[in-house]
Design goal:
Distance between the termini: 59 Å
Shape: globular
Strand content: 25-35%
Helix content: 10-25%
Order of helices and strands: HHHEHEEEEEEEEHHHHEHEEEEEEEEH
Amino acid sequence: MNLSPSAAPSPTPLYQAWQALREQQPHLRARDAAAALGVSEAELIASRIGLDAVRLRPEWAALLPALGELGQIMALTRNEHCVHERKGPYREVSIAPNGQMGLVVSPDIDLRFFLSGWAFAFAIAEQTEHGTHRSLQIFDRQGAAVHKVFLTEASDASAWEPLIERFRADEQSAELELQAAAEPAPPAADEAIDVAALRADWAELKDTHHFHAMLRKHGVARTQALRLAGAQWAEPLQLGELPRTLDVAGVREVPVMVFVGNRHCIQIHTGPVRNLRWMGDWFNVLDPLFNLHLKTSGVSELWRVRKPSSDGMVTSLEAFDADGELVLQLFGERKPGSPEREDWRALAEQASVLEEA
């Protein structure tokens, strides 16, 4: 990403507006700056092309496995209210033959990719007072961030330039062909749902991965299904039970699985949580390899959900925002073929049910 002064283009009006905003608010993150400037985050990042950013070819089946060359990195996936950061090597990457799905399954970095919505990739090498911050950032067709990878002090920085040059797009244009998001279909009315059939199918689940298919079969939204399932399968909880459960898991050393995602990527941490702190309305896990930043004011509903499986009952806490979007899921540490941990189940079952108004 070496740019000679003669080759560097003049800053675009968008980039100049961004820098002016940064002078006023030096700690403003790109996501929030984009919102303030009325553009997508991808458009904001594209305004850096030729300055400290390079547009990459969106060849996911080749690019994602190549990230293993960087050694230990920090992978970041977020949604509107929660940020999930995990350090480790990017390895054991697999992409489905149809190119629509992908996995990273390792003890450190654990990801699920839904690649049909991925559109743009950029490499950024930003000069800061703390040195050069290098990252690879991926965005969807609407310009929203899907997934980001940051180099750390433990990364192999010598692998950065060769990797970026290998995937550099021929056309280094800041113009992005964004697409409007499809309008979601309105959920069916409760009266239109066959609740008995929904509950019967729920009781027959053999794998938690079949849950989405069950929702689609009945044409039911996720939080709607939780409301209709009955207390045997789902119970609304007091919102404070989510941070409390993480706190107690840390004290009791109960290893957990923390799922955070968006429409196109899910990131998972498996293991203990230890250093938990409040900062305003943000609840944080600040461990050496795992950081979580949960904006608790963005959580409108919390549910205890029980799903039967061939390995026994699987219990989770699931947090949703005001639009019914999933913010975070919390499970006990578990591998396929193994029953749920008793210490996790006991902890999850202690969470207080929301009293009816």
